[in-house]
Structure formats: C-alpha cells, structure tokens
Amino acid sequence: MASPEIEQKLAPLRAAVKEYGDIVRKLKAEGGAKVDIDKAVIELKARKRILEEAELSLAPPDAAFDRVKLEDLLKRRFFYDQSFAIYGGVTGLYDFGPMGCAMKANLIQLWRRHFVLEEGMLEVGCSMLTPEPVLKASGHVDRFSDWMVKDLKTGECFRADHLIKNHIEKLLRDKKTPAKMRDEFMDVLAKLDGMDNKDMHSVITKYGFKSPITGNDLTEPIAFNLMFPTVIGPTGEFKAYLRPETAQGIFVNFKRLLEFNQGKLPFVAAQIGHAFRNEISPRQGLIRVREFEMCEIEHFVDPNNKQHPKFPKVRDYKVLLFSACNQMDGKSAQETTIGDAVGEKIIANETLGYYMARVHQFLIKVGIDPNKLRFRQHLSNEMAHYACDCWDAEVYTSYGWIECVGNADRSCYDLQQHYKATGVKLTGEKKLPEPKTVNVVEAIPNKSVIGKAFKGDAKLIIGALSSMEEAEVKSLEEKLAKSGLVILYFSGQYLFCLVHVEEITPSVIEPSFGVGRIMYAILEHAFREREGDEQRTFLALLPQIAPIKCSILPISANVRLLAVMRKNNYFFKDDSAGSIGRRYARTDEIGIPFGITVDFESEVEPWTVTLRYALTMEQVRLNVSTNFSFIARKKMRN
Amino acid sequence: MASPEIEQKLAPLRAAVKEYGDIVRKLKAEGGAKVDIDKAVIELKARKRILEEAELSLAPPDAAFDRVKLEDLLKRRFFYDQSFAIYGGVTGLYDFGPMGCAMKANLIQLWRRHFVLEEGMLEVGCSMLTPEPVLKASGHVDRFSDWMVKDLKTGECFRADHLIKNHIEKLLRDKKTPAKMRDEFMDVLAKLDGMDNKDMHSVITKYGFKSPITGNDLTEPIAFNLMFPTVIGPTGEFKAYLRPETAQGIFVNFKRLLEFNQGKLPFVAAQIGHAFRNEISPRQGLIRVREFEMCEIEHFVDPNNKQHPKFPKVRDYKVLLFSACNQMDGKSAQETTIGDAVGEKIIANETLGYYMARVHQFLIKVGIDPNKLRFRQHLSNEMAHYACDCWDAEVYTSYGWIECVGNADRSCYDLQQHYKATGVKLTGEKKLPEPKTVNVVEAIPNKSVIGKAFKGDAKLIIGALSSMEEAEVKSLEEKLAKSGLVILYFSGQYLFCLVHVEEITPSVIEPSFGVGRIMYAILEHAFREREGDEQRTFLALLPQIAPIKCSILPISANVRLLAVMRKNNYFFKDDSAGSIGRRYARTDEIGIPFGITVDFESEVEPWTVTLRYALTMEQVRLNVSTNFSFIARKKMRN
C-alpha cells in the first residue's frame, strides 16, 4: 500500500474504476446484451489503466536502476546480444553468450529440480515443426494474430495498435495540441487494448494517421498470423508452422503419457523447449522476442475434483493477489494466503492455487525480488478462449509489470479439440465409488444377410457395425426409418451393463514460464551500483543462478595451490592484467558472487587464501583445505 | 581383424580396391585430368562398397540383437515415438517421452561436463531462425541439397538415389532377371553414391524406371534444398531458414567471443541446440530425422600452429583408424595411438588428434561399445567444400556403420566467407616473436582544399579518406593518375611502422555430435535378452546415462523407511501390482541399473534393504543408512 498522501491522490481514480466495475457486474447479473457489456468493459479497462499509470508515476522511483547501464553491461560482457549483428541484425532475435548461456542453463536446471523432480512430473521433448491440422484444431491458425496496417504504396507493415500509440504520444508531446484533443487522445490510449480492427480503423481515419516513415495512406487493419510458416518435405503441399507454444506437443501425446502412467489420473507432464512468434515489430529486448525458450506444465485432473494432495503444504503460504474483483473495484493487490484465496473462491481450485504457491517459491528462489512480484487475475474478457481461470505472475521491471508465468485452468478445451479433429478419444477413466448399471445400445449385425450381399467385404462391414457408438447406432436407425428403408443389415439392441469406471476428459491446469523474461527480470533486480562510485556497476546474482560461482585471482602464482583450487568446475581463473581492485570489478560485473585471492601470504604454511563476498565486499581468510563447495549452494538474499 | 578363412575370401576384394586406389594415386601424382580422377574415384568407391558389404556379411552375426524387439520396447515404454501420431504422424519427426527425455538430458549434461567445463569452452546459444544472406555466405543456399525426381503427372517426389536403389533391389530379388543384368545392376548400386544428376538420369531412362506408386514417368533429377524456408516479419520479403547446423551461429559471433576472451587466440566455442534438415524421404528412425539436437565445438586456432597444449595427455591413447590410405588399399581399420597417427601425418594436426581422443573417451563413457567404434577418414572428394581433413567417428549398429561425430578441420573457410559477405573483418591478432618494420600507405587529406570545395560535407570526406585501407589508397591514386586527373584532395603517404602483432584468420577445428544418433547407438549396444528367456529383454544402461538410477520396490510398506529412501531424486518408486519378478522385469526394461527392495525383513531393526544390480541380478543386503549416492556415479562396464 502507498502512503496516505498518495492514496488521497489515487482515491478519485479508484472510485472511477469501481463505478464501471459495478456497472459491468450489474449488466452481467441482469443478463445484459453482450455489446453493452463489452462497451462497459472497455471503459472499465481504460479507467484501470489510468489508475495503474498514476500509481506507477506516484511510487518512489527505483533510484538505483539505470537501464542503459544494465544494457551496456549485458552487451559488453556478452550475456546476450542481437543475433546476426554483422549482417545488420534481426529484431526480436538474440544470441546468448557464455555468461547468458550458463545463467540460462542454471535457471532451467533449477526449474527441472523444483518442478519435474520434486513433483514427479513426466518430462517430454516434442517436435517444434508442427503440421497445420494440429494448430488448426488448437485454434492457433484462426485466432493467433495481431492487427496490422500496411503503407498503401510501399507495402511496409506496422502493428496497428503500436502505430496509433506512437502517433498519439507524439501529438501529446506537441504543445500545440489543444486541451480538448488531449482528452480525446488520452481516452483512445486507455481503450486501445480493447479495440478491434474496426475501432482502430475509425481512429486512424478520424485523425488522419499516416505511415510514420513515408507519410502515405494506410490500409484497413488486417489480421496477421503470428506463427512462422514452413513446409515439410519436397512437394510444397505439407503445410506446417513452428510451434507457438510447447503445450500442444503434450496434448497430442496424452494417450501415450496416460499409458506410461499405467492409466492413472491425475498425472502431470512438463516440457522445456523453444517456441516461436512472428511478432510484427518486436521491441523491449528479451521481453518480446521471435524465438524463445519456455517451460510448460500440464496437470491433467478430474474436472469434478481439482483438489491437490499437497495443498495443505501451501495453505498458509502468502502471495500478493490482484484479483479481478479488486481490479474492478479500483483496489490494489492484496496479500492473502493461498488457503484463504481458494477457500473464498478467489482462486478457482486447489490445484491452481498449489501451483501458484510453487511458482512464487520458484521465482523467489532464482532471485526475483518478492516485493516486485504479484499475481494478476485475468478479467473474464481477457482470458484466452480456452481458459476458465487465469492468473499471471507479474514481475515489476523498468518496462512496468510484465507477465513472466501464466497460470491457467485450460479446462478440457484442448483435448476435446484434438479429439474432434482426429476421432481419437483423449479420455481417462475414473473409478466409480460403486459400480452402476447403465443402458447401452449396440448394433447387432445380421451376419448372414451381410455375408450374402457383400461377400468378400462382409467382414469389414460387420466390424464397422460392431464398433459403432451408441449415438451413431441411434441416428442410423432413425435415418433409415425416416427414409422408409427396412433395416436388413443390423438391429440396435439395448443392453444393461454394470460399469465400474466412468470415462472423463481431464481438465488441464497449466503454469507456463517465459525463460527469457524471468532471466531479464532477475538481471534487473540484481543490478547494483557501488555506493559512492556510480560507474562501478555489478550484478548481485544468487550463487545458484550465477554463471560462475567463484573466481580465483592469483596475485602470487603458487602452482600447486592453484591446482588444488581449480579442480572444481565452478571456478573461473582471472589472470588478466590490472590491479586487484580492477580485477574484482571485472568479476563483480558478471555476477560472480565469491572471489578467492591467492597472495604472497598464501605461500606460507598452513596455506590460506582470502574469500571475498562480492555483494558486501567482506573478506575472510580460510585454510586452503576448506571444502569450498558450499559457495554453489549457499542461500542468501541480496 | 577377421579370421584367416574370412580373410582368404576377402583377399581378392581387397586387391580389387587397391588396384583402383593405386590408379587414383597415380593420376593425382601425375596431375591427371579431373574427369579421369573423378571416374577412377567412383570405381574405387564402388569396389570399397563391395568389400565392406562382404566384410559385414561374413562377420559373425550379433546373435543377441533383434531390432524389432528393441523398437517395440522403446515405443511401449515411451523412450521416443513418431510425432503427431494421432494426426497420422510425420516421418522424420520424433517426440521424446519421459525415459528418452531424461536419457537425452543426461547425455547432454555429460557432454557439457566432458567438453565445455573440462576444456574451458565458451558456450553460446544462438537463434535457429537464420536470415538467407548468412546461409548464402556459408554455401548452404547453393549447395545443401539432394537430387529428387517427380512423378510427371501427380507431382509426387522421390529421392533419386533411393528410387534407383529400390528399383534395382526389387529386380535383383526377381529370379527372372538375367545374370548379365544382375552384374550391371550391382555395378550401378556400387557407384550410386558418387553419381550426379546426369548419371542418375541416364540410369533411370536406360532401365525405364517409373514412379513406384503410379507407374508414371519421372522428371530429370532436380536439386532440392534441404533447409526449411520461412519468412521473418509481416512483409513476406525477409527470407530466412531454420539453421541446418549450429556452427554458423558461432562464426557470426566470432568477434564478440574473441573480445570475451580478451582478444586472445586460440579459444574454443561450443553450442548445444537444435538444427533442421528437410529430408526428402527420411527413414531409419533416429538416424535420419528432420529436426534434431546437436552439440558442436569450434576450436579457433592459428592456421600455422595447430599444436595443442594438452596433446601429451592423449599421445598414447589408442583408437581404431580407418584412414583414407587404408581405404584405398582395401585394408581394414587399424589400431593406432593418436601420437603415432599425428606423427605420421595420418591425422592432419595435434588439435584434430586431441579432439578425436576426447571424442573417443566421451563415447565410451556414455556407453558405446569400444569394439564397435572407429574413425573413418573422408576421401578427398568426399570432404565438404570447406574441410581440409575430416574423420567421422562411426559406430556399428544394425544399420551398418553410422556417422555419430564428424571431426573436421574446416580451415578458415567460414570466417572468410562471412567477411566477404559483410565486410566485417573476422580476424585475430598473433603476437610476433619480435616486432617488425612494415611499409604502410595512408591517405593524407588536403584539409584546406576539401574544406573550401565541400564546406558542410568536408568532415565526412576527410573521415572517409583517413580510414581508407592501403589497397584502396593505391588503387585510387592509380585510377586518378590514369584518367589524367590531378590529385588535389589528398596525397598517399608512405610510412614506416613498427608492428608487434600480425593479423590472422583463424582455422577452425570442429567436432560435431548428433545427439539422436549417439543415443540410438547406446540403446542398441545396451539391449539384452535374459539368457533362457528371450521374451525378457532389458537395457544395460550405464548409471550416468540411465533415465532413473534406482527403483524402490516396496513389498512391505514401512512408511518411515520409504521416506528416508525417496529423499533422493534418482529414485523411482514402483508400487504397481504384480509379483516381485514382474516388477523387476518392468524396471529392467527401462534400464534402471539398481533396485532396492523393502521387504518384511526390513522392518526389523537395524533396518536393512536389498540392493539388486539389474545386469547380473546379484543382490546384497545393506543397512538403510548407507549413502546410496554412489549408484549414480558408479563406473561399470556391461
């Protein structure tokens, strides 16, 4: 919560949000027309946005942080940098250098331990190349797109919402823009997120926005699919895409995984891998890229029982929740226990709540500042078409609150879609508390009639009839009856069966992690300047995440001693020239948390060295026979 | 070496190879015409192939191995399986299930430890999406293709060499094919590898080969590029490909890596990542796929000094070498020390030899049978356009000898190509033994003349003149002189400089690992049947590679005891139903090397359990307080 002075300034904005929150709620309760609800939601979101911006601008600035300096460090010490720079570079593509690569590997290894191993998940690795029908079924071919406008003469493309935003921001900076126009523009900006192609087109024509490069007229907004297209094989006819998420690979393997789990539900699958999004004009460094690594978990569970056996372990775990309800009331995020949030139905179910706690624990473990971490619930119209509840783990950075982990209850949407597309049942069995009797209709083939009529093909026809589903039998019977045909070949027979299990399509709870975004947020939260020396910047990375755990700075060259020290792999020997201070600065910059200095005093038996902790610059003298492996595991807060 | 009886049978075939090996050598020595050499090489390779097939057919069969059974096991226990099977599947794409995924992660982790950490390599992670100009420079756009023929009516595509092979093999099985034709066909088969499009076209027309599916006529062989095409961004004009190897990502980052290494050569970069090849008709499981993981090392070294400081460590290491010379003489592979092979110039240089030894050590460490491992040298016409020496680590499997690791000296081809394409110098500096004096030509701008003539643009022109290279200055001077123009604006000035360093374009030594191929070879070499029970198959995986190190089979449910046992992550609890024998069989099948059984005897203090070693089925009773972590590290041979 902000100070009372700030809260006083925010109060009218909070009230303005709540006014429309209440209107939306009322319309929904009374079953109002969709168009009215949609309109009210756009106004609600516009007011929310104004509130959020006011909150950010009134918050005390993060004095220590200077993004330009961080970016310079990351580039200079090759954590990551733009791909193909010698060829002019490609926006939205990044190469990870030795430091970034090691840090990413540590992050992923910790993720695997925290989730896959501790929770006994089934990890899979699926193909990135994905045939079109799979992504047609998942909804990506039809719905995974952004609106784009084109320069009518040059064909140059712009993302429609970005173009409007940039034009308006320029006009707002222009002192000649009259006050009335300013209000209109603020209103457009606030509503931009909720606009469709028609809304954006009318904004562009109303204000006469042109191509920012040529000044030419623009087309109407057209949908641009964000998947990278390709073709498999030589004919050019087998259309495919690079996967936009790793989840679909798990869904199409559902049957194999269920079998691997000996037919038992619930079970959890996970995948670590790359995905691709052909962004129209990516910016913001690692936050919005065209090729990225993600970690996804798909927890398959009985839709009527989403309890989690380990829930008691996280019941009292506290998280900062920004619920849909709070958002509509103009309130801030609130600290709550997971147990209370599930108990009060703020979080939809135990399994979703359990993962939110585990996600929170993980983000803290890898170095996210807990004071800059919240879960924001999607408003109902924000949610993806498949989701029934969704909470984004958002991390506060210099780019604002960014989504790092999406936590969604995808219900049974995906499995049902793939079933519809393939005819392959993607269901599990649930044991009934006691067996029950059900009526089943089966087609009983009239074998002798079929045999005479179809001879060689009879076997095929008998097989097809026998395997018909209940609904098919009924509808075939009806059709034949309606068309006045006599049923010669089969009869529908009604049977009574005792069944012990029920067939269910599982619901899917999905935490989905953006590796690059988490990594960037860690780097921002770890970035420091030495007090009294702003030029000396460094990274206070936790040892578990740091690319290198410890440096060895030899002032004296005691070879035998160095050999003892370097046996272990997380040591990095810096024998570059320069004063010891300069060498410490070099290792601090790349986030090496510990430094061991071998000096002339070390030569005297019993051999000793100096261990320095980068964050505090404290030093301690230790015997060389010390087991230094603790430095890789040490848990400490910056 | 084979038995004397077999060698007797092989002797004439060996002589036949040597005959043409000698002809090729003679032609080369005498500077014969390229067309004659090429012809002789094709005949040489044909004879080599016949010899190799005879060797394989005469070798004692690997009695224990039954590929169908292995494939059944891998599918059933979900090591890996065809991707998108519920959509009909895609050839050449595989999904890794929980067992395959864990095994692959172990393999890659061991690779990282064996190479990246132990050798202090700079690991990078680069983009898979690659702009066309990068792959144009590397030669892949123009040269990375296979010959394909199309059905003239349906447009269906076939790989030309596969089509010819299949047609001929069918005709050879047909008893009506006359003996004379058989000889011709054998000859075509033997020469197929060396054929170009014209050769294959004449075979297809001579024998009237048609589409195997429709019987329609076929087109002439056309080159089909094996890269997957796509476009970046919305305009459709930014052409790109999915990378066909990870190496290019390292080359385009050369400058950043050199800088990271404080400008010092040699240094080594490595990358673990996916690559893609749009095969025309992939078969052979994991051996030939469209999407695969690879590990590549690029060792940048002074082209005039390819010594390696750690070479003494591998000098006496023994490997099986199948040199180009032995291949041309019709001899078998020979065991040699790396030191001798480099000393006798069989292996081109120390660095290449050092890596071959390290590759050999790695393959043995992960479970490749050392008796089924050899290095085969490329014949000069087999080598990629960039390579100057190349040795494939080949592993013997039921598919024959397959290339698992390519070890090439790529010389400075790649860096030079990217320099030509971008104008960005990709060179390092080498300290001269003593400084030397060189003549340098510099353009000295005539500032006052330029200032008066060009006013505002003068600064630009002066800058451009000052930064001109020696050759440019000379050629500009000459051009102006020739055209009779007086040089007003600048004069070329000859300076004498003392230089301490020399600029060099490094050579690149590249070991390149196919992860899927190595994994498949390990699985084949680990596959066993229990003596006396052929139905009971299992995998004798080394603990370091095994997806799970140890199973816990609870017969009695001592909860406290189980909790103690399961703390560690490499344990897998099998509480499925079934007899203890059946449960052992289940865990043996997925290659779990150790099993711990908790039984009724375990309940009595001091608590004890049974540890079983899957390979030998030996059992031993141990106290529960034993530190079981040794099982993950134990080095043992199957």
Care to describe what's here?
Chains A, B: It comes from Enterobius vermicularis. Chains A, B: One of its GO terms (biological process) is mitochondrial glycyl-tRNA aminoacylation. The structure is a homodimer of 638-residue chains. By secondary structure, chain A is an alpha+beta fold. The first copy, chain A, folds into 5 domains: 60 residues; 254 residues, BirA Bifunctional Protein, domain 2, CATH 3.30.930.10; 81 residues, Herpes Virus-1; 56 residues, Signal recognition particle alu RNA binding heterodimer, srp9/1; 88 residues, Anticodon-binding domain (Rossmann fold, 3-Layer(aba) Sandwich). Chain A is 39% helix and 26% strand. Chain A has 23 helices and 26 strands. In chain A, the strands form 7 sheets. The first copy, chain A, has a 9-stranded mixed beta sheet with strand order 3-10-11-19-16-15-14-12-13. In chain A, strand 20 and strand 21 form a beta hairpin. The longest helix of chain A is centred in the first third of the chain and has 26 residues. Chain A is globular. Chain A starts with a helix and ends in a 5-residue tail after the last helix. The mean pLDDT of chain A is 88.
